[in-house]
Amino acid sequence: MNTGIQFFPDQASDFALRVDLLYVFLLAVTGFFTLLIAGLILFFAVYYRRRQGRERTAARENMLLEVVWSIVPLVLALSMFSWGAWLFLEMHDAPADAEEINVVGKQWMWKIQHPGGRREINQLHIPVGRAVKLRMISEDVIHSFYVPAFRVKQDVLPGRYTTMWFRPTREGAYHLFCAEYCGASHAQMGGQVIVMSERDYADWLARRSPDQTTGPSGEALFHQFRCHTCHHEGSDARGPSLRGLYGGAVPLDGGGTAVADEDYLRESVYEPQSKVVAGYRPLMPTYHGQIGEEQMLRLIAYIKSLESPSESKSSSEVSQP
Amino acid sequence: MSHVAHHFDDAQQQLDAATIGMWLFLATEVLFFGGMFLAYTVYRTQYPAAFEEGSAHLSVPIGTTNTAILLTSSLSMALAIHAARRNRRWLSVALLGATMLLGAAFLGVKAFEYADKFEHHLVPGRHFALEHPHNPDVSPGHVELFYGLYFAMTGMHALHMVIGLGVLAVLAVMTGRGAFSAEYHTPLEMTGLYWHFVDMVWVFLFPLLYLIG
Amino acid sequence: MISVPSGKNYLDVAYGARSWLLSLDHKRIAILYMISITFYFLVGGAAAVLFRLELMTPPGDLLISETYNKLFTLHGVIMIFFFLIPAVPAVLGNFLLPLMLGARDLAFPRLNLASWYIFMIGGLISMWALVTGGVDTGWTFYTPYSTAYANSNVILMAVGIFITGFSSILTGINFIVTTHTMRAPGLTWFRLPLFVWAHYATSIIMVLGTPVLAIAILLVALERGLGIGIFDPALGGDPLLFQHLFWFYSHPAVYIMILPGMGVVSEIITCFARKRVFGYKFIAFSSLAIAVLGFLVWGHHMFVSGQSVLAGLVFSVLSMLVAVPSAVKVFNWTATLYKGSIAWDTPMLYGLGFIGLFTLGGLTGLFLATLAVDVHVHDTYFVVAHFHYIMVGGMVMAYLGGIHFWWPKITGRMYSEWWGKFSAVLVFFGFNLTFFPQFVLGYLGMPRRYHAYPEEFHVLNVMSSAGASILGIGYLIPLIYLLLSLRFGKKAGANPWQAKGLEWQTPSPPPPHNFETTPVVDEPAYNYSPDDNEITPPPESA
Predict the structure, then answer these.
(1) For an interface test with C, which of A3, A26, A44 has the most C Cβ atoms less than 10 Å from its Cβ?
(2) A248-255 LR contacts (CB < 8 Å, sep 24+)
(3) Which of A199, A9, A208, A210 has its CA nearest to residue A114?
(4) Furthest C-alpha separation in chain A
(5) CB 3.0–4.6 Å: which of A3, C233, C450, C487 could bond A158 by disulfide?
(6) Which chains touch A (3 or more CB pairs under 8 A)?
(7) CA nearest to C253, candidates C170, C173, C169, C357
């Protein structure tokens, strides 16, 4: 039996320290009030115990007191809200340069895909000091990706992407848990997050263990499913070009626009009829049952990498100063 | 005063209690259906075209007929209470009977509609198929959601009708035996409130399910 | 009008199973509820014993995971729907509301009996679901796990809970109508005992919240059984829609589980401090404020669910507001003690324990309402500890306090004061040893609903299990001495605590129609005088 008792988990991300600080503030406030109430109750119960011969005439109400003990908790609670909300908003806005890693949850494992194509199960290798953004989806029920040492958690839903981000600050191996009850082996649905130095991470990415195949890349899938036969640059293309599509607004058939984010791309492959691009006919068949969630994430990553012809030039200039 | 239960002081107190109680019960009913109306609103906003498609497979003439039947039954219910207030026992019984007939007619039409949907594979589940879509662009899954809501909402409504018919049958017998009079007919009044409420629900369901698009 | 032999009380007016099972007397129906919920409590408690044993060691060695999952589901469903929600309202509320109002019965006695039958039918169907294969969804029934993936008796359980919901609704309607129409002459709204105010607020939640749970759970059953699905993500259904519907009821349900307890404590504190309650109107209106705010904060269960950031912010700030009426109550109770004349009888020990544990439970709620902290502790043992402090530390303490306070009224007998105090203290310490370590576990990151866990959580889990065994004994002792008191207890007399309130002005046990003559009220609630300092033995009124 491990006999030491900790009160804080490892602090291994830059959120960890900040969440702990807020937690300590909450502990201080609640500790103060718990001791105050408990102390007063004990004191009154002893001091004013029957047959103690104390003075026993007291007011039945006091407006000033009522106002004070309404306002003080209100102010404290709102300060907790503000601090918590501020930090929460930062937890939602991933920096633009964050490394995007895809996560697919299913009963009862986490399947992870790195940008280079390397895949792993129930382990997440990441470099220290670099922001990492996870794009997550479930193949079955709701799961929740939880790394206590980073103080982050996000539910992973079927049918819709959710994201989370963090910046690990300390090398080491940390618990990865599924926090949303998901069935028989819920407690086994976890593993480790392994934070490595940049160099070890690069080595690890390059290494190919025998049981870890990278699988076809997004580009290979694009050709395998013959997406390019319709989505090409020619004037006779039956589908819209996908170059530079990501992040822009798409005019829809029948009016309105949609933002071409990951959820839109996914929906357009699985439910091609639901948001048809203006000027095109609804010819595309659904790929439900043919393209799994993991392949979908790779396909989307590939589509995102397709820059529009004009942009690709300028961005290559930027990247090569 | 024999109709005043032992724990009440007088008839007025008893009537007040019954009235407040019934309105509270109707409040719970509003929230019960409210949950489904919320789900309807969420999905209709998300998939407007699919909801129009689903609605297009429902027959407006049949829905309109049923609406007329139900509104008429509300009228006969109101008249039955009016007759009881004037001590016209047998007229009251007859009108309660008419209300029940109309209610049963509504359910009969509903059953016919359900059978028709079953035949056309519009009942959600493994056999669901959107066979002759008016708008080929919609995803069948979203239309299936529409029909999930259609059956849940109209099914719950029909269940309320069935319960209402049962209560009306008991009341008709009681009225026939002279249980109610101008002084005391609270159960009739309360059942009237319930019956009108069930009508009201239909008045919302009909346009939301049949008349969109 | 039924003629009653004078001098008979509600217990000896008739004998035999029929006279109980068909009784329309709110006091007898309260006893039926008391026996039923005690049974359910023992069943739910037995499940807790089993999984606390499993959690003594890190690996899942005693129970396989499927069994463990069914046990915590059983524990949650039974304790919430069949013990905590009916505990104070259906037992103490049923017994006391008409007495406190000076009425002969609840407004709808037949409906009241029907509520009990509905409760039992729902309960037995749920028990049937639990013994014939069990249910493994957790008491929250999240879709799509519950609709498409769970291999257990979800439909039967859903039907059981759906039916039981009507029992709550009908009880709520009965209480509201009774409070509105059946108050004794002179008993104005602001002379009502705070127990009545608390039950009024609770009833509002029962009436408005329960139907939403009913429809949500029914839709789960329809989707699972008939495929008439509206939550199915494969069709484009929203997996969060169920959570919204579920928590719209189930968060207010937490207040169903605590408000009546607050009412009990207001009665106990005033009686054993011999003082008028401090800030009567503030306590009364804070009950209503909690009931109203309670309907606006459900989204704080979903901060990491994928709901929008804006929704998270709104639900967070609204949840923070609940702190105010809760704090107002705690401060007012504490101020009531000031310059009181305090007796340490068993009910008072429970009452004081309630304030302490509720304070800690309420304050830890602030951690969960604080967005960034909730991201870390959501779905960990921190949450488990928090709601047990509210529901067990709060509601169960209040229920036991209330049972001890009104036992002489209900049965006409006094129980052993020494054993009463002993078990009150035992429950308090056992409770804290069980659940305080869980706060620490939660912050360390141990997720809930895990039947196996990493080595470093071992010590705290052992402490928790040790506490649970003490707590279990603390709960069993009252069962024994209260039953013994029925035969061996001293006769209590009409008013053993010299308490105010109409229920104490009629003999113990009360006559079938509560009062020989309708009482008239001409004084405010809790009109205790500070000179009641020295208690003289009460003149036997019976």
Answers:
(1) A44
(2) A250/A275, A250/A277, A251/A277, A251/A278, A251/A279, A252/A276, A252/A277, A252/A278, A253/A277, A253/A278, A253/A279, A253/A280, A253/A282, A253/B137, A254/A278, A254/B49
(3) A208
(4) 101
(5) C233
(6) B, C
(7) C169
Q: Pick from A303, A196, A171, A147: which is nearest to A239 by CA?
A: A303
Chain C closest CA to B211's CA: distance in Å? 21
How far is Cα C248 from Cα C241, in angstroms, rounded to an integer?
11
Q: Which of C268, C419, C243, C423 is CA-nearest to residue C351?
A: C268
Residue-wise burial string across C403-438, b where 16 or more C-beta atoms lie within 10 A, e elsewhere: bbbbbbbbbbbbbbeebbbbbbebbbebbbbbbbbb
Average pLDDT rounded to a whole number, residues A63-75 = 91
Distances from the Cα of A205 to the Cαs of A109, A117, A120, B167, C132, in angstroms? 21, 9, 11, 73, 51
Segment C442-469, tens digit of pLDDT: 999 999 999 999 999 999 999 999 999 9
What would the mean pLDDT of C364-373 be, rounded to a whole number?
94
pLDDT beyond 50 at A318: no
Q: Which of C323, C341, C330 is nearest to C279 (CA)?
A: C330
Instruction: Identify which of C225, C150, A287 has the alpha carbon closest to the alpha carbon of residue B125.
Output: C225
What is the nearest CA distance from C532 to chain A, expressed in angstroms? 10
Would you call A271 helix, strand, or coil by DSSP? coil
A253:B137 CB<8 A: yes
Pairing mode, strands A132-138 and A99-106: parallel
Identify all chain A residues contacting C525, using CB atoms and an 8 Å cutoff. Answer: none
Instruction: Please indicate whether, in this complex, the C-beta atoms of B137 and A271 are within 8 angstroms of each other.
Output: no
A29 → chain C, closest CA residue: C363
Contact B21 C182 (CB under 8 A): no
For an interface test with C, the pick among A8, A21, A50 (most C C-beta atoms closer than 10 Å) comes out as: A50
Do A179 and C379 count as a contact with CB atoms less than 8 A apart?
yes
Q: How many contacts does B have with C, using Cβ atoms within 8 A? A: 127
Q: B53 — contact with chain A (CB < 8 Å)? A: no
The Cα–Cα gap between C191 and A99 comes to 65
Is C333 in contact with C266 (CB distance < 8 Å)?
yes
Q: Which residue of A has its CA nearest to C280?
A: A61
Contact B136 A273 (CB under 8 A): yes
The SS3 assignment for C62 reads coil
**B6 pLDDT more than 90:** no
The per-residue pLDDT for A303 is 86
C408 close to C542: Cβ distance less than 8 angstroms: no
How many Å apart are CA A79 and CA C369, to the nearest integer?
12
Q: How far apart are CA C101 and CA C180, in angstroms?
A: 10
The single residue listed with the structure tokens 């006893």 is: C31
In A, residues 10-39, which contact C (CB 8 Å cutoff)?
15, 18-19, 22-23, 26, 29-30, 33-34, 37-38
- Which residues are bridge partners to C413 per DSSP? C491
Q: For the purposes of burial, counting CB atoms within 10 Å of the CB of C290, is it exposed (0-12), middle (13-18) or buried (19 or more)?
A: buried
Q: How many CB pairs under 8 A join A and B?
A: 19
Least confident of A39-43, A227-231, C186-190, C457-461: A227-231
Across the interface, do A274 and B142 touch by the CB < 8 Å criterion?
yes
| Phi-psi category of residue C102: left, alpha or beta, with phi > 0 → left and psi -120 to 50 → alpha | left
Residue C542, pLDDT score: 36
Nearest CB to C211 within list B6, B31, B39: B31
Q: What is the dihedral of CA A88, A92, A95, A97, to 10 degrees?
A: 140
Q: In the predicted model, what is the mean pLDDT of residues B176-181?
A: 88
The CA radius of gyration of chain B, in Å to the nearest whole number, is 20
